Amino acid sequence: MSLRRFRALSKRVQPTQCRPLIVLQRGDDIILLNPEARRWYLTTEAGKELYVYWHEHGQLGVSDEYSSDDVQDFVADVEDTLYGESRVAVPEFGCAVYITEACNMRCTHCRFACATSASVLDLDTIKKYLDTEYARGARQMTVTGGEPLLVWERLTRNTLAYARQLGMNTMLLTNGSLVTDEIARELAELGCVVQVSVDSADPKVYADFRNHAFKPVVRGIDRLIEAGVYLAISTTLTRRTIGEVDDVIRFALEHGASSIHFALLEPGGRAEGAWNELGLLDSELIRFFDSIADRYFGGLRESLRIDDFEMLMKQLVHPPALEGCNCAVAISALYEDGLVYGCTNLCGQERFCLGNVEDKSEHNRRRMCLVSSMPTVGQIAKCRDCEFRWVCLGGCRDRVLLTYGRLDEPDPYCDVLYSLFRRLLFEAARLIEQDNT
């Protein structure tokens, strides 16, 4: 970096109050963060002192350890990183098909209180929906329910096949109990990622929690692995199951799963009536994620991917160009009633309905109205000044609505998310540092 370049950079320095800077520290690692530009810089205590002096006074400090050229280069590098041209990622578009509300289990925590029988979609409607979403840019399609394998022959297989034909990546969410050798083979041929819910590896705890035997689930998982399917395990964090996580991780490793997902308990469906029994305190969840992060970045990452951690670190490194919830922006869902909604979790709620797949003009009009009605992160009081507003984006609006009955409140798991983003920012920074050395 030439002295001329550094002087030019010095001339454009704005008053300190116009230049946001947040300093975060964990051990010897320090991160300088500009939330407005969604940019950050990993440094040391010495680097922080040099840069903060420059940031506050607009001139170089003196250092016995570094030459003036080194200091100029360092400060200019930080300036370019924090206040240079903003680089944000285009949100990844996805869609979901809520194929049926019918389910062969009655899980205590079910978000949708699924029943043993329910209506299902028809394939023509699904194809029209997928055509529309693919044209909008969706490249990820998830089939969920209910239990999608209840209608495998009739609907689910053809839905996955059509999405693959369009060029979408596909995922199937299932409880795994109905997987046969043939279904496993067909899922492998379709290149479908399969996520199986396992809240406990103890057959008794599993049966008490899901009102179904565990053995058929284990058999289904083994069939998927034998067929070569990419398997993810999903476990919901509740007071009854959080003590089972170590065993679930061990189970996932022993049975050949590639990744695991930790789902937060949602305040709806059957869980609403059992919240006092199942809900965890924020402090308990924060300790849990800290403990899991210690284990994950201490070596577990080499053998089992934690999808939540990897997804959030990706967003911290490549923040999405969003100002709030991605409902109806980068995600939508086709519900079993044949109507499209802004998000899978908001299916069945009129105010989030985008209409049917036939009427595209009405569909687009409703989408625009819905997006404009959703609060941005800057319109949520607690979120407005949070250093992680640029990546958290206010959290999940569905959870907010279910908890407070309105949309302009922070996510009820706000403190948990803050702690998680902060921890993962340092982990992501360290991983990048290791890759560059």
Model description:
The protein is α/β, with parallel strands linked by helices and 437 residues long. The protein contains 18 helices and 13 strands. It is globular.
Percentage of residues in strands: 5-15%
Structure annotation, total helices: 18
Q: In which order are the strands of the major sheet placed? A: 10-9-8-7-6-5-4-11-12-13
Q: What kind of sheet is the major sheet?
A: 10 strands, mixed
SS-based class: alpha/beta
For the CA atoms, what is the radius of gyration?
A: 24 Å
Overall residue-averaged pLDDT value:
91
Shape: globular
Concise overview:
One of its GO terms (molecular function) is catalytic activity. By secondary structure, this protein is α/β, with parallel strands linked by helices. The protein has 18 helices and 13 strands.
Distinctive features:
437 residues, alpha/beta, ten-stranded mixed beta sheet, three-stranded antiparallel beta sheet, 18 helices, 13 strands, disordered N terminus
